[in-house]
Specification:
Length: 248
Amino acid sequence: AVQRIGYTAEDARIVVDQLIDNMLCGYKFAGLPRILAMAGDEKIKDARTPIKVVKETAVSALMDGGNNIGYVTCYHAAQKAVEKAKAHGIACVGVYNTYYSGRNAYFVEQIVKHGYVCMHTGSNKPRVVPPGAARAALGTNPIAYGFPSNEGAIIVDMGTAALMWGDVLLHAHLGEPLPEGVGVDQHGNPTRDAAAAVKGGVAPFGGKDYVYKGFGLSFAMQALGLLAGSAIPRDTPMDYGFLFWAVD
């Protein structure tokens, strides 16, 4: 199925390895159903070019994702971070001109299994409605940390939105209502209708009394996405930016 929407056999292997891993970890929305979202994404129709490094130092690299999906670009960015951390003890790698990357913990684990501490951030297109706003202005903007231990990788992976976008899309596909206090329609009104939230957005995490905490983290992740090369066409953060830090 992944090859039929235009990906090579090697890229399909990278994508499906994560999708299966996601399902085995209990994330149904981040598993094989994501192929439906991939096939329907507007960026799938745009031309793709090979991933390339556009700027590099001994301990850093900036990568142009060539409009390839984030499952593939972040996989290669994580490998680049491991390569540099092995050589110099620390690495910072950013990737832009890409899109949805799946479950951040998957990439972090690829770095941690080599014995490195990792921090991974992601910014994406507006789907989160800030407190008091009428429309989405920030991405779901996840943040993940990873630490090696004698008993395996310890991973902390969380989105800064009240609900991850993949879960919203799955609810919409299945016609199931969203939890209370999560969805916002295109007019800025609260809604449990997932299809309406797809046109509007979701709230930051934190609930009614602490939503400013989720908003603050989401804002920070969007700013870090700019460091990774994320573009802001027409003053709107439509592009994705992913950062990896690895430390020995």
